[in-house]
Design brief:
Blueprint lengths: L2 H4 L21 E8 L8 E11 L2 E12 L5 E2 L11 E3 L6 E10 L11 E6 L4 E4 L15 E6 L13 E3 L1 E2 L6 E2 L1 E2 L7 E9 L2 E8 L22 E3 L18 E8 L14 E6 L10 E3 L8 E8 L1
Antiparallel strand pairs: 1-5, 1-20, 2-3, 2-6, 3-4, 6-7, 8-20, 9-10, 9-13, 9-19, 10-16, 11-12, 14-15, 14-17, 17-18
Length: 308
């Protein structure tokens, strides 16, 4: 279960003039560290929240807004100075049972979250390990994702173009089945598939459900496409590309992308890769080629709270 259904009426808000939770007394001290997050641009930053209260009545306390420096350290998004902590929090430490890190377009702490959470964790005895698969965050085990794709061009009737289309389907099944074994994208996120051919990167479109079509048919022909994510690279070639595009040797990957206004650079893949692979140098049409999770681990973090 994702964060939004649990916080529909609570909205991760903080009360009081000092951004504290007015029903709590006492001061607490928090430490926070993250790994695997990458620098964000376009006004997008990260914000950490304390989830406080009880499981049936809880709020989010805005803790710290930050970005990531070139060395992976947490930095102030305005001054670019390193944020070493610890951070004060006007909450009772015993009332904090969760931590979340969201994406926000802001240069100062917000009282309302975007609902696009990338890290989360449960606080046990004053400490938490933050992961992407916690219910506060993406709520999906990214390292266990799997999938595959096949090359063919269903949107035209030219049999000579079969290496110019890539579809996330299993062509060995009858009827054809989805090629991606991943859950529906969580609230605030969408999947997007990409291919790199030479020095150019092309988006195949965004999708939430891997068993339904994606958002784009920008390069496909006029014939009916399969009801799954994918693209034929036949028409409307962008500058520098020659269509039909031979996908032999192309790099293929699927990312999680922030939704809506949080996708501040839609032409550039977000760093959170779910699956990746490549097309063989001498591929065969209608052959299933595998995708696998990246070798590098997903983002993570650690958290402690004392006092209060």
């Amino acid at each position: 279960m994702g964060l939004v259904p649990l916080l529909t009426s609570l909205l991760l808000i903080a009360c009081g003039d000092d951004n504290g939770i007015t029903s709590f007394e006492g001061e607490s001290t928090v430490t926070l560290s993250v790994a695997g997050l990458e620098p964000l641009g376009g006004g997008l930053n990260y914000q950490a929240w304390l989830v406080v209260g009880t499981p049936s009545d809880f709020w989010g306390y805005p803790l710290v807004l930050f970005n990531i420096g070139e060395g992976g350290e947490m930095v102030d998004p305005v001054s670019d100075t390193v944020l070493g902590g610890p951070y004060p929090a006007s909450v009772d430490a015993t009332g904090v049972f969760g931590v979340g890190v969201s994406l926000e377009i802001a240069e100062e702490l917000l009282d309302y979250s975007s609902y696009t959470f990338i890290l989360g964790g449960e606080v046990v005895q004053g400490a938490a390990s933050l992961t992407t698969d916690h219910w506060i965050a993406i709520d999906a085990e990214l390292p266990s994702a799997s999938g595959g794709f096949a090359l063919f061009t269903p949107t035209d009737d030219d049999p000579e173009n079969e290496l110019s289309g890539l579809w996330f389907v299993d062509p060995t099944t009858t009827p054809t089945e989805a090629g991606l074994a991943i859950p529906e994208a969580p609230t605030g996120w969408a999947y997007e598939s990409w291919v790199e051919v030479g020095e150019q990167t092309f988006s195949l479109g965004k999708f939430v459900n891997p068993s339904q079509p994606d958002s784009s048919e920008a390069f496909s022909g006029d014939e009916e496409a399969p009801p799954f994510p994918g693209e034929d690279f036949l028409v409307n070639a962008p500058g520098g590309a020659a269509f039909p595009l031979d996908l032999s040797g192309a790099v293929v990957f699927v990312t999680l992308e922030p939704q809506g206004t949080l996708d501040v650079a839609p032409e550039v893949p977000f760093f959170l890769r779910v699956l990746e692979g490549s097309v063989p140098l001498e591929p065969a049409p209608l052959t299933l080629y595998d995708l696998a999770p990246p070798l590098s681990p997903p983002p993570s973090g650690t958290f402690t709270i004392q006092g209060g």
